[in-house]
Amino acid sequence: MYNVTVKKLSLVIIALTFLFGCASNKKFIADRPSEDTKERFTKVYECLRLGEDGVVPSLMIARVKGINAWIDNDNRVYLTPGLYNYDDNTITFIMAHELSHAKLKHIRNRQAVSYATTGAMMVAGFIVPGAGWLNHAVNPAVTNNFSKFQEYDADRLASETLVNCFDISVEKQIHILESLKKDTTDAGGFWDRHPSWSDRIENIRGMQNLNK
Question: CA of 143: how far to CAs of 27, 111, 171, 186, 206, in Å?
Answer without folding.
Answer: 23, 8, 31, 19, 25
